Amino acid sequence: MSISFRTDSDDEKAFRAKVRGWVTDTLPNDLRGWSTRPPFDRALWWHRQLHAKGWIAPAWPKAYGGMEATLNQQIILKEELARAGAPEISAQGINHVGPILMAFGTDAQKNRHLPPILTGDETWCQGYSEPGAGSDLASLRTRADIDGDDFVINGSKIWTTWAHHSDWIFVLVRSDPDAPRKQAGISFVLIDLKTTGINIRPIKTLAGDEEFAEVFFDDVRVPMENLVGDLHDGWRVANALLAHERLGTANPQLLFEAIERVKKVAAATGAADDPYFRERLAELDIDTVGFAAMFAHAVKITNAERSLGLDASIMKINGTELLQRICDLLLEAAGTDAALIDRIDTEAGPIEIAPLFLQVRRATIYGGSSEIQRNILSKRLLGLPG
């Protein structure tokens, strides 16, 4: 990036050069600069390249096959992947259920699931949101009745990223409908998507892709050995995972990539010659670097196996709203080309405008909307009435 909140040491400069050289040589042009997720088979190909290099799970401990990278190495990886316009990998396995299994899973669950998450041999999706239970997740109604050694699950999930491409789903289910609090009586369960009784329907999004899907469960039998954590204690597991998700949603790689896109488009259209435009771009550049420093602090807390707590809500609000502000400026930089769905030509190569702008409209909604995050902060941090 053009400016940074930190300076590389000699070892880190060597690591950055290594990452930059490898990405330049390995990442093909058809995988650069995607606003939405690339086709599943191509995204999986990129996952496997990162795995073969040993860089697919920078924050995972080496004991589980991860890189166990230093905090600065993790930042360098994010910066260099953003600089190259590399696509996002599916986060639900590496960033979500993987860390949850390390923290709450049995040895059998870790041994069964962590290796294929790393290699990309099995893809995961997340079953949290339901019709009527999105940001108010504790209102979920998908039910898990206990029958012998099995759960029998009925209900549905919505906005499930890549469910139609996934092998497994981790879900929150209501296992005790008579619990005194709606946050109680919820369990966290792993489900093989090949199980009888599951129906998946893709959803076309505003950005024109089919990233999301609805998932329906009709008397789906799941062995109770797939329970993660204790029975009826899924809310505690979910809160730990939501911290990972909110941190991932605010990933500065997305901000770095968007800022670089604005600069390239502004240079091509002449917007960069306008002093007022340059002033606003510089402000966003500084805000992005400041956010990257905040993100680094949050990653340091997470790597130390301490709970992010309310920091996750602060990160989620700041990161996603900053991303939208950057994309607003991208639209302005593009001028009369802003509404085009197809890529526009620049000296830096073809670049998408409208698809990215449309894609990030939902960033302030998923993982807990900005309104919900502000409510959480007002009650828990400021002590205001709910």
Quick summary of this structure?
This protein has 386 residues and is an alpha+beta fold. The chain has helices at 10-26, 40-53, 71-83, 91-104, 107-119, 234-249, 252-269, 275-303, 311-334, 354-359, 370-380, and strands at residues 124-127, 143-147, 150-157, 168-174, 186-192, 198-203, 212-223, 227-228. The protein has three domains: 10-89, Acyl-CoA dehydrogenase/oxidase, N-terminal domain (Butyryl-Coa Dehydrogenase, subunit A, domain 1, Orthogonal Bundle), CATH 1.10.540.10; 124-234, Butyryl-CoA Dehydrogenase, subunit A, domain 2 (Beta Barrel); 250-380, Butyryl-CoA Dehydrogenase, subunit A, domain 3 (Up-down Bundle), CATH 1.20.140.
CATH class of the largest domain: Mainly Alpha
Give the low-confidence spans.
none
CATH architecture of the largest domain: Up-down Bundle
Cα Rg: 21 Å
What helical percentage do the residues reach? 40-55%
The number of domains is 3
How much of the sequence lies in strands comes to 5-15%
Helical stretch count? 11
- SSE-based structural type: alpha+beta
Largest sheet: 4 strands, mixed
Q: Give the overall form.
A: globular
